Input
Amino acid sequence: GVKLLINKEEKEISVEGVFVAIGSKPNTSILKDFVTCDVNGYVLTNHSLETSIPGFYVAGDIRKKNVRQLTTATSDGTIAAMEVLEYLDTL
Output
């Protein structure tokens, strides 16, 4: 089971699994003066995960996307890494 604290009252519920969400606000304040973000602070990217700065890529839950899960963040990392390699080959 899982113990919850609701209105200062502890309650235990039986569950089969748990998804932990650390936060719903992206920690992108360090990037806001450099790349284009949406009104919620998520970094905007193109299909290659490149930001508004050529050669600057982001991956994971800080970028604007519809699904935020471990599997999509992992996929983003792979795509961004391959795109960076391709970008570096053009220099």
